[in-house]
Amino acid sequence: MKLRPCIDIHGGRVKQIVGGSIGSDRPVQENFASEQDAAYYASLYREAGLRGGHIILLDSAASDPEAYAADRMQALSALAAFPGGMQIGGGINPDNAGTYLDAGASHVIVTSYVFRKGTLDEQRLDEMKSSVGKERLVLDLSCRKREDGAFAVVTDRWQRFTGWTITQENLRALSSHCDEFLIHAADVEGKKGGIQSELVEILGAFSRESGFPATYAGGVHGFSDLTRIAELSGGRLDVTVGSALSIFGGTLDLYELAAAAAAAGEPWLQE
Known about the structure:
By secondary structure, the chain is an alpha/beta fold. The chain has helices at 38-48, 65-81, 97-102, 122-132, 168-174, 197-210, 223-233, 254-269; strands at residues 6-10, 13-17, 30-33, 53-57, 86-89, 108-110, 115-116, 119-120, 137-140, 143-145, 151-155, 160-165, 180-184, 214-217, 238-240. The strands form three sheets. Strands 3-2-1-4-5-6-9-13-14-15 form a ten-stranded mixed β-sheet. It has a three-stranded antiparallel β-sheet with strand order 10-11-12, with no helix packed on it. A two-stranded antiparallel ribbon has the order 7-8. Helix 1 (38-48) packs parallel to helix 2 (65-81) and helix 7 (223-233) runs parallel beside helix 8.
């Protein structure tokens, strides 16, 4: 199990927010707004040897182009500070993906471009694969729990439910089209109240069976969460922690958490 770092950018600043509040009819709920820029955090992760994290542009290019442009400038500075070390998502499409890869992103992360009108658009998925190659494409399957108990992928800054649900069959089918999955549990993201265990159990079963790279994010607030994720995934599901980290105003130390994540996964990875 690896700790995958994150840099979330909103309004041209590095922030940690309650994810489900973006794009809703409520004000955006901020947990932390940094005085440091994105390049600072990228350099921190580079020095710590934490590769494979993600940079997310949280503003919408369509609804707020000025804010998105500010996010983009921050993201490019972070990519320059850690070339090849981080992935990037937020408004990615076949036309702009190459720019970010050329700027130093290891992968591009996509949700809304391939999930639209409530379903998976296979033509658009093929366009993304043709544009960047399967080996540099991460599919963001961030989801929310429906009333029927199923976890459905959500788009448009986690406000719109699709009909595509997180199941073993669906994960297996989609894994042939990308290099990794990134899954935010949008219902608990940024709340530091504990992981969404039911979702982790589904993802953990898939990870144990397939060994396919996947990263879970949402609700981690203590070291015990890492042990639980490792137990449910055989140590094969990576994890992202944001608001709970001391570098983002929380209480958990980045270096201690990275070491604990590695240790939590070791007994299962040795099987």
